[in-house]
Write a structure and sequence with these properties.
Oligomer: heterotetramer
Number of helices of chain C: 27
Helix content of chain C: 40-55%
Strand order of the largest sheet of chain C: 3-19-22-18-17-14-15-16
Bound molecules: iron/sulfur cluster
Largest interface: C-D, 123 and 123 residues
Number of helices of chain A: 6
Structural class of chain C: alpha/beta
Distance between the termini of chain A: 27 Å
Number of strands of chain A: 7
Number of strands of chain C: 25
Radius of gyration of chain C: 27 Å
Structural class of chain A: alpha/beta
Chain lengths: 179, 179, 796, 796
Amino acid sequence: MVMEIPFDVANIAGPETGGIAPPEVIGSYITSAKKPLLVVGSELLWGDFFLDIAIEIGKKGIPIAATGHSIKGFVEKEYMDNVTYYNLHELTNCLRDPSWKGLDGGGNYDFVIFYGILYYYASQMLSCIKNFATDPLMRAVSIDRYYHPNARMSFTNISPRMEEQYKDMLRKLVVSIKR
Amino acid sequence: MVMEIPFDVANIAGPETGGIAPPEVIGSYITSAKKPLLVVGSELLWGDFFLDIAIEIGKKGIPIAATGHSIKGFVEKEYMDNVTYYNLHELTNCLRDPSWKGLDGGGNYDFVIFYGILYYYASQMLSCIKNFATDPLMRAVSIDRYYHPNARMSFTNISPRMEEQYKDMLRKLVVSIKR
Amino acid sequence: MEALERGRIFTISDLQNVRINIGEIIEEEEEWEPMGPHPMPRIATLRDWDFKLLNRYKPFYAPLCDMCCLCTYGKCDLTGNKKGACGIRMDAQQGRIVLLACLIGCSAHCAHGRHLLHDMIKKFGRDVPIDFGPEVNIEAPLTRLVCGIKPKTIGDYDKVLSYVEEQIVQLADALHTGQEGSHLDFESKALHMGMLDSLSKEAADIIQIACYHMPTSYEGGGPDVPMVDVGMGTIDTTKPVVLVIGHNVPPAADIGAYLTENGLDDKVELGGICCTAIDTTRVYSKAKLVSALGRQLRVLRAGIADVVVIDEQCIRADVLELCQHTQSPIIATNDKAMHGLVDRTDDDPDKIVNDLVSGRVPGVAILEPDQVGEVAVRTALEVDKKRKGLSYILSDDEFKCYVNDCIQCGSCTLACPNGLRIGEANKSAAAGNIKPLADLFDICVGCGRCEQVCKKHIPIVDVVTKAAYPEVKEEKGRMRIGRGPVWDSEIREVGAPLVLGTIPGIIAPIGCGNYPNGTKEVQLIVKEFAERNYIVTLTGCMAIDSALWKDEEGKTVYEQHHGRFDAGGVLNIGSCVSNAHIHGAAIKVAGVFAGRPLRGNYEEIADYILSRVGACGVAWGAMSQKAASIATGFNRLGIPAVVGPHGAKYRRAFMSRPDRKEDWTLIDATDGSKVYVEPGPQDLLVACETVEEALPMMAKLCIRPSDTDRGRSIKLTHYIDLSLKYLNTYPPDWHLFVRAASDLPIATRNELLKKLEEEQGWKIDWKMKKIVEGPIRAYNPSFNPTNLERLIRRKK
Amino acid sequence: MEALERGRIFTISDLQNVRINIGEIIEEEEEWEPMGPHPMPRIATLRDWDFKLLNRYKPFYAPLCDMCCLCTYGKCDLTGNKKGACGIRMDAQQGRIVLLACLIGCSAHCAHGRHLLHDMIKKFGRDVPIDFGPEVNIEAPLTRLVCGIKPKTIGDYDKVLSYVEEQIVQLADALHTGQEGSHLDFESKALHMGMLDSLSKEAADIIQIACYHMPTSYEGGGPDVPMVDVGMGTIDTTKPVVLVIGHNVPPAADIGAYLTENGLDDKVELGGICCTAIDTTRVYSKAKLVSALGRQLRVLRAGIADVVVIDEQCIRADVLELCQHTQSPIIATNDKAMHGLVDRTDDDPDKIVNDLVSGRVPGVAILEPDQVGEVAVRTALEVDKKRKGLSYILSDDEFKCYVNDCIQCGSCTLACPNGLRIGEANKSAAAGNIKPLADLFDICVGCGRCEQVCKKHIPIVDVVTKAAYPEVKEEKGRMRIGRGPVWDSEIREVGAPLVLGTIPGIIAPIGCGNYPNGTKEVQLIVKEFAERNYIVTLTGCMAIDSALWKDEEGKTVYEQHHGRFDAGGVLNIGSCVSNAHIHGAAIKVAGVFAGRPLRGNYEEIADYILSRVGACGVAWGAMSQKAASIATGFNRLGIPAVVGPHGAKYRRAFMSRPDRKEDWTLIDATDGSKVYVEPGPQDLLVACETVEEALPMMAKLCIRPSDTDRGRSIKLTHYIDLSLKYLNTYPPDWHLFVRAASDLPIATRNELLKKLEEEQGWKIDWKMKKIVEGPIRAYNPSFNPTNLERLIRRKK
Ligand code: SF4
Ligand code: SF4
Ligand code: SF4
Ligand code: SF4
Ligand code: SF4
Ligand code: SF4
Ligand code: SF4
Ligand code: SF4
C-alpha cells in the first residue's frame, strides 16, 4: 500500500486509514458488492464528463443518491432512472442504521461509492460509516480526485493538470465494474 | 517507505511521521551527524548485550546521556567515559534550546539517538524535538525495538520472539556507524 | 441574635438594638406571573425534554478524529466504536467532544456577559434600569423563561450569571475522564449548555443595551435604526485609523466617547471587525464596519490600522506578529486575550503612548476600558504620522515576482481548508490573467494556512488581495445597525400569521464566516427569503457579510428591504450575543401571542416552538465553538438550524427519520390522542453541501405540524418553488406535507393533485377537488400538537 | 425607600415603617486580619507572579498530537510550530490544551464541592459550623489566602464557590478560538486554574468534614485515626455486597447510616473504590476499601458486588455494561454521570427495588442522596440471594482454553498503554507456567484496551486475574483513614525543622494509579522517605495502593510508621479533595511558624513556600485531568511535583535551567541585593522514567535556597545517598548545592571535600576544613530569599 497525503493534509483520523487503489481494483471491489449505492455530490457538475460517468455507473444498475444540488445535472441530462435527491447528511444518517429500508424499500446497502462530493463533507460522512456502520459492515469507497483516508479505498490526489488522467481512470473504472 | 503501526497503536501524531529504516541506513544517517548524542534509558538494563551496544557506540566517540536509572549499568560495567546521568525530561528541555552548551560545554547537538527508553516517554520527547528543535534542525532517530513515528527514523516493532534478529540489527548498526 | 431565615418577610419591630449590615437588598418581588415548573433548571431537570428530542432526532456522529487524547491513558483508538482505556465508546466520546465545544462557546458568552457586568457596575452602578421603551414589555424572555426572574436593573443579572456559571462548571465536571458513559446524557448536557448559552447572550446584550442606550423601542430604534458603512473601502486611510477587533464593546465605546469629547469625530477613523464593530455602531454613529471575521487577516495585512485594539474572541492568535509587521501598535483590553503583553492598566497615559509610538513595545495591555480611549486615539494620531506613505499592499513588481515564483507544487492546496487551487491561479496570473486569483478573494476564508507550507515563501494571502485590490478598495456596503430586541408590538402583529403559517417563517442567518463559496451566498440567502416574505433576522458576521453585495441599482439587502419584524423584513438584530433576541422573538410568540406562561416554563415553551413556530437558523459559515453552542441552544428551544458543509466537522447532527413512524407521533393536547404527523421540522441540525441545496432545505424546515392549510400551502409553495429553482426538480418528499387539497397552493393545485395521483398513487376526488386517500393524516384545524403528556387538557 | 448602599453599616433607627425582605445577612466580619493585596484574584491579578515562575521554569512542550481539531477550520497541522487557521502556533496550542485539562480537573473539584454544598445545606442548613477542634485554628488556609475569607459555617462557601465558578468560566472563555496567542498567557491561566483547583478541593473537604464530623482534631482524629481494611480480599462475598465508586460521599454515607439504623452493619458489606471509598471510611467505620482506580475493571468483572452505586468521577464509562454482565444492578446518584438510566428520584423505593431485583431495568438514577441507602441495601439483600453461587472468575478449564487460544499476534501489546507482552505470558501459561501472567496483574492498569482488539476474543483481563487469583483473594492491607487537615499545633512543632531543613522535607504522594510498574513502587516511595524522616502525606489512590504491600512482619507502611505530621510520619490525609490540606500545611508553615499574613496574600506566601518549604509532590500514576490541575495548583504555590513517565503525556512540564544564571538570581529581602543561588527547587514539574530515578529526584527537589547549613547537609545526605543506592553513582550536580563545608554531612565531609577538589577544581583549605573557592555562593545564614521586589525590607 502506497502512502499518500490526505487532500486536506491534517485529515488524519487515526490508526485506520484507507488504501489507495487503481481504478480496476476499485472497480472489481465494487463488483463484489451485493447492494451498492452511488452517492454523488455537487462537484459532479464541474463537467459533463463527470455526470456522464455517473450515469454510466447508474446504467449498470447501481442506484444513485444525488446529494447537494447534483440532481440538477441529472434532470438536465434527463436521466432519472433510479436517481433520487437526498441530503448527504440525512442519507448518511440512514445508511448508518442497518434497519433502514433503502431508497427502494428493499433494505440498506452494503457498499457505497462516493463521487463528486466536497472533500471535507465527504470525509466526515465516510468517517461516520467507518466508525458506526460496522455491523453488518458497510464498505465505502471514493472515486473522487482526492485521497480519502476515511474511505476503504480511494484514488490518490489528482491535481488539475492531471485532469485527463483522472478522466481516464474514471473510464477504466466504469469498464471494470461488472454487473 | 513502508507503513508500520506505532508500537502504541494510537500514537499517531499527525501528518509528519518518521520512516522505518534498516540498521545500515540509520547507521549511515548517524554517521552524517556533526555532533551526535546517544540518549539511553532504563530498558538498556534489560540485558547486558544492550548495554554493551551502547558502550560500543560510545566508544566511537559519541557521548552518552544516561537517563532513567540506566547509569547504573554503566557504573557496573565501569564504563564512564563521556557518560553523564541526566533526567530525560530535563535533557530534552536543554536539547530544544539552540543556545544550550551541551554536556561538554561545546554547544548543542545536531543529532540524537534514542535507545532503551520507555516507549511513550521517548515518543513524547521525540515529539518535542520534532516540533520545536527545528531551527537549527535537530535530527532524532530511535534504535529501539519499536516503530517511533515521532523520530525521523526508527526500526519496525520487534516482538520478543524476534529478539535475536533485533540484536543482529544492533550489531549491524554499530558496524555501520563510521566515525 | 435571632437566626433569620433567607427569603422570609422579616419585620423590623421584632428587633431591638440591632445593626444590620445590609448585604443585598432583595425587594419583595411583585408577583408578575406565577412561577412555572422549572426555574433555574439543573442538569437533570429538563432531561426528559432532551430525551424526547434525542429520541426523534437521534444524535448522528461523524468523528473528526478516531482517537481520544484527553488523558494520559491515551491516545486511545476508538475506531469502530471501540472502547478507550476509561471504558468510553466512540459515540459517547463524540457526545463528550460536542459538550466540550458547547462548553467553550457558552463560556465565551457567559464570561463576556460577566465581564461586561463587572465593568458596567463599576461605571454606572448596579441600578441601571432595564427599560427598552414602550414597545418592549417582555424585556428578557430567556431570563424569565429559564430563571423565572424579571430583571429590573443590570444588578439583577448577578444571580442570572451566577446560575449560568454554576451550571457550566457542573457540566465541565461531566467532561472528566470516568463520568458519563451514555452519548444521550452527553447530548442532554450539551442541550443544557446550549440553553445556558442563549441565556448568557441575552444577559450580555441586555446589559450593554441598558448601559449604553443602544437602540431599543425608543425613538430611532427598531425598524428605524440608521444605516452604517461596511467594507474595506469605507475607511479613509488618509486619516489616523483605530481598528477594534473582538466582541466586548466598552473599550471601543470609550474610544468613540474620547473622539467625540475631543472633537476628533471627523479627524480619526474608528473602524472595526466582527461583533465589537457591530456593537460600536450601536453606540457611536461614526464607527465603520471594516469586515467580518473572514477578512481579519487581510485587513491587518493591508496595514490600514494605525492602532489595533483587541478585546476578546475571534481575534487572530497571531495578531501581535501581524501588527508588528505593519508597525501598528496593539492594545489588548481583556484579560482573556493578553498575548503576553505587559499590563499597563493604571499607568500614566503619556508614558504608554510614548512607548507605543516609539515602538519600544509592540503593544500593551490596558484592562480598564475607560483608560483605552485616550491611549488608543493619541497613539493613532502619532503613529499615523510615522506610517504615512507606508503601504502594505504588494507592488505590481512584487506581485509579478511572486506569481512567477510559484511552482504549482500544490502544497498550499493541501493545506487550505477549502482546497483552493492557488497554484493554478498563480499560473494564470503569471500568464497575464489575474481573474482566477482575484476570484479567490471572496472564497478564501483568510486563514493563512497556505502560507505556512509554501516552500517558495509566497505571501499567498497578499498575492490574492493584490489581485482583487481594485475591487476591494471600492467595496462599500450599507448595513442597518443592530436593533436589539424584537418589539412585543411587532410580535402581536405577526404572531398569528407566523403560527398559522401565512408568514412562511423566520430565517435567522447567524454567526461566522467560514463559507464554502464566499460571502455572496449569504446575500443570496437573505434576498431569496426576504423576497418571499419570510422575516430575515441577521446577527454577527452574516449580518456584515450580507451587506457587501449590491443589486443592479446599487442597493444592499438592507436598503432593498424594510427593517420591521414582519413579512419581507431584513433585520440586523446585532452582534452574536444579540441573537438571543431571536430566541426571544420565538418565546414571545408563545407568550404574547398564544398567552402561554413564560416564567420558569422552558419545557412547555420549547414544545410550543418546536411544533408551531416556523423558524429556522442558518449558520452558513459556522466555524467556532460559539456557533456550536448557539445552534445547540436553538435546538433545545425547538428551532432547527442549517449549517454549511464545514458544519459536518462539528461531528454531531440532529436528524430525524421520517420513515420511522414511531418517532413522529405527537399528542393532540385537546384530547390526548396520538397523531402520526408529517416531519416538521425534519431535522434540528443538518449540513447542506451547497447553497442551492440549503435554500429549499430551509424552506422545508419552516414547516410545522400546526400549520393551517393556508399557511401550509404557502410554505409548500416556497419549498417546491425553491427546489424547482435550485435543484431543477420537485423535492421527493413534498407529498409528505400534504394533508388535504387545501394544503396545496391554488395556482398549482390541479397539477399537484395530478402528481399525487400519478406518482404517489393517492386517491383524488376530482369533482370535489379533494384528496380521498393518501396523506399520512387528515388536516385537522383544531389539532393542538404537543410532545408533553402533562399538557393534555382532558385525558380521554 | 431610601437607597441603601451595599456593604455600608446601616442603622435601623434611621428607618420608619419599613419591612425589609432579608436576602442575605452578612454579619459584620470580625477583623481577624487586615486584608492582603490580592483577595479573590482575577485572571490578571497574579500574572506577575506567574510570569516570574514561567521565566525560571519555562514551559516545556511535548505535543501528544500535532494537530488541532477544536474548530471547523481544522484539523490544522501545527507540526514544527506552524500556525493554524486561527493563527495559533503549536506552543500556544499546547498551553491551551493544558489549560483545558486543568479546566476539566478544576471543574470536577469545584462542581463536586458545589454539589456537596447543595446537598448538605438541604440536609443540615447553612449554619453547620466549621470547627475542626482545639488544634486547628486556621481552619481553611487556602480560603483565607485566596479569598480573604475566614469561613465560619458551610454557608460561607457559597461565595467561595461562586468566585471559583466565575473564574473558571472566564478561563474557559480563553480557550475559544481566537483568544490568547501567547503560550505564557495560557500557562498563567492554567496556574490560575490550578490555584482555583486547590481552593475548590479545600472547600469540598471542609464542607464534608463539617457536615459528617469526619476526623479533625477532636478525639480520635489526627494521628490517632483508626485503620481500615484494604484489598480485594477484605470483602466477605458470602454476604450481600454494596460497592460504591466515585468521589462524592453523601450517597455512600446514607448507605452506611441505613445499615446502622437497621442493624445490618455486620450483615451487609459496604466496600468502595477510589475516593468515595476513602471518604466512606471517614464516616462509616465498617466500610472497606476494595481498591483504587486501577483495579476497578477487575473488581467489577470479578462480580463481587450485588449492587453498584456510582456517584461522580473515576467511574468506568462502561460500568453499566460491566454490571449487566455480572447481573449487578447499578444506582447512579449524580447528574454528572447518569449513564442513560431513568431518573427515579422521589419514586417509591418498593417499586425501584423491585425493578432492580427483577432485572427489569439494569439500573436507575436516584439523585437524592438520602434516598439511596434504603434502595441500595434492600436491593443488595435481594440480589445477593439470586446471585449466590454465581462466579465470574474464570474456571480452570476456561483459563486453559483461553491461554491456548492465544496466537501471540501481539495486537494486545500494541493496544496496551504500557505495551505489556500478554501473548508471551499466555504462551508461558499454556506451557504450564502461569507466573508471567500472574505478574502482569500488578503492572496492568486494568484499562481493558487489549480486549478490544484481540481477534481471538480472549478476555485478557479475566485471564490475568485468574492467574493472580490465589494471591489476590488473600490481599488484605491496612490503611489509616483520612485524617483531614494537618493541625496548627503540629505545624508549630515542625515549622522550624522544616524551614531550616532538619526535617528534610514533605513528600506528598497524590493521585491516580497509572503506574509504569505497578502499585509496589508507591509503597517503595513511601517507605524510603518515611524511613529517612521525611513527612509523607498521602491522598487518593496512592494512599490506597501503598497499603497493599506488607513487610516481612506483615506490616504495611501505615503500621510501620506513626501518623503524626512529623519526621517519619505516614499520613493518609484523605481523598483527592483532601490534598488541599497539603497546601494548607505549607501555607500554615508560612502563617503559623513564620508569622506571614495569609489573608488575600497568595503571592507572598507562594514566594515564601517556593524558596523555603521543602515539599515535593509525587503523582506517580498521574492520569486524569484532575491530576493536571492538582499539580498545576501545587506549582503556583511554589511546590514542585514529580510525575511518572506517563506524565510526559500531559504535554507540558516546568523545568528550570540551572546553567542559566540569569534565571537563578533571587533577591535578598534583607537588603535588596541580588543573589545567584543554587537551583532549589530545580523543577516544578518533571517526569521520571523509573522509580529508581524518581527517588533521588524527589530528594533533590526538597532543597531550598533558604536551607540552613545543617538542613542542607541532611538534604544533601539523602540526595546523594538515594543516588548511590538507586543509580549507583553520585548525582552529577550535587556540588551545585554546596555553599560551605558545613553544608556537607559530617560523616562524609572529608570524602566530599576531596571530590569537590578533584572533580570540580574547588579550592579547599584542608587545615580549616573550609571551602575557599568554588561554590556559586557563600552560605549566608541571614539570607532572606524572595522573588518579589516589594518585599525588600529597606532598599539599599
Ligand atoms: S479519556 Fe478515556 S478514551 Fe480518552 S484518552 Fe483517556 S482513557 Fe482514553
Ligand atoms: S505552495 Fe507556493 S509554490 Fe506551491 S503551489 Fe502553492 S503558492 Fe505555488
Ligand atoms: S488563506 Fe485562503 S487560500 Fe490560504 S489556506 Fe486559507 S482559505 Fe485557503
Ligand atoms: S482529538 Fe484532536 S488533538 Fe486529539 S488526537 Fe485527535 S486530532 Fe489530535
Ligand atoms: S482552533 Fe485554530 S488551530 Fe484549532 S482547528 Fe481551529 S483554526 Fe485550527
Ligand atoms: S491479541 Fe489476543 S491472540 Fe493476540 S497476542 Fe493478544 S491475547 Fe493473544
Ligand atoms: S488491561 Fe492491562 S494488559 Fe490490557 S491493555 Fe490495559 S494495561 Fe494493558
Ligand atoms: S487519585 Fe486519581 S484515579 Fe484515584 S480516585 Fe482520585 S482522581 Fe481518581
